[in-house]
Amino acid sequence: MHLLDFLAGWVAGGLATAVGYPLDTIKVRIQTQHMYSGVWHCIQSTYQREKAMVFAPIDLIKIRQQNQTHPHQSYQGPLSRDLLSKPKYRGSIHCLITVIKEEGVLGLYRGITALWLRDIPCFGLYFLVYSIFTEWLTPQGQHKPDWTAMLLAGGCAGMTYWTLATPMDVMKSRMQMDGMGQQRYSGVLNCIRESFRQEGTRVFFKGLSLNCVRAFPVNGLTFVIYETVLAFLRKINLKD
What we know:
- The protein is mostly helical.
- It has helices spanning 2-32, 39-49, 59-66, 92-103, 112-137, 147-177, 188-199, 208-239; strands at residues 74-75, 83-85.
- Strands 1-2 form a two-stranded antiparallel ribbon.
């Protein structure tokens, strides 16, 4: 049964990530860069310059690639093939190799303390909220919720998670970007102090609205897909 749970979770997580990834890219850029006046400005700038998104399985690699804001190729003119600029990272594997080469293996774990501080307390509440909402939304006498109840419960759980997790998510993103240039932060506490000193309380809520907008459909979809795939796999398993 554990294998079936794993397979269902893998499919659900992959599809949900694909749905939420574009907004995740915008969220990361707002949290780590100061060139954008707002969410819509960031979306327009990203589309005009790049018209694409990249994906990486490692969070630090994802953050580094999401913050490459210049085009992959820039030419002098329509008739010239002279390359004027190129990105630091040419892809996920190249980014991984470059980080290890320039910052060592430990560079891949930059921001891991902030990641722990974000996920350890928030994930417990995430599943608690989902469980409570599914109980509320399941009709009396019915053993399991229908897909609309799972969608709503998952969405509410996701929004609760990101409401609490966004402050540390900002710190995590900033620390993961710290290795691309001159290192600014000596640790999580230093990152919190410096960010607050330079930008005030609002820095801890950068990307909150996007996190919540993204969280509802992504997490709702995650639980619906998970339960659907798990039921399908169990049915196949019983036939064997």
